[in-house]
Write a structure and sequence with these properties.
Helix content is 83%, strand content 0%. By secondary structure, the chain is an all-alpha fold. It starts with a helix and ends in a 10-residue tail after the last helix.
Length: 154
């Protein structure tokens, strides 16, 4: 039960850390903020796996304890609190999948904003380069059209 309690506590902390990382993101998110969310997702996934394992182990132990008590002709001890805790841990762990998908969608959208900004900047750079090339050509043409001596119009 201690392992299950610890796993549940760590899962809760990981869920809180992910929520905090998501709420701390600016618009658009910085690379450090995106990394914080991805790191929180990784930790959350690991803690969900640990909680699932602990819950399954607790359920197996309850089943074994009940079977042993029955085999010994004893009344099984009420282990419903452990069973309830295991059920809650399994339920929390199951919600991690949805949270992970949702958070991945958020980070993907933030990355898309950066890509859009890069594409916009690239287009502006291309336009500026074209205008610079045209100005250089105009200058070269004006220089080559000058007579010696140059006229005021040239």
């Amino acid at each position: 039960n201690a392992t299950l309690t610890t796993a549940q506590s760590e899962l809760d902390a990981a869920q809180t850390a992910l929520a905090n990382a998501l709420s701390a993101m600016s618009d658009p998110a910085t690379p450090a903020q995106l990394l914080a969310v991805e790191t929180a997702l990784t930790v959350l996934t690991a803690k969900a796996a640990a909680a699932t394992s602990a819950a399954n182990a607790a359920n197996a132990a309850v089943t074994a304890a009940n079977a042993a008590a029955t085999a010994a002709g004893e009344t099984p001890t009420d282990l419903s609190a452990i069973t309830s805790a295991a059920t809650a841990a399994l339920s929390d762990a199951a919600t991690v999948s949805a949270a992970t998908i949702s958070s991945e969608s958020v980070t993907d959208a933030e990355v898309a904003k950066w890509v859009a900004q890069v594409n916009t900047a690239n287009t502006a750079l291309g336009t500026a380069q074209t205008e610079l090339d045209a100005a250089q050509t105009a200058l070269a043409n004006a220089l080559s059209a000058m007579s010696d001596p140059a006229t005021p119009a040239q």
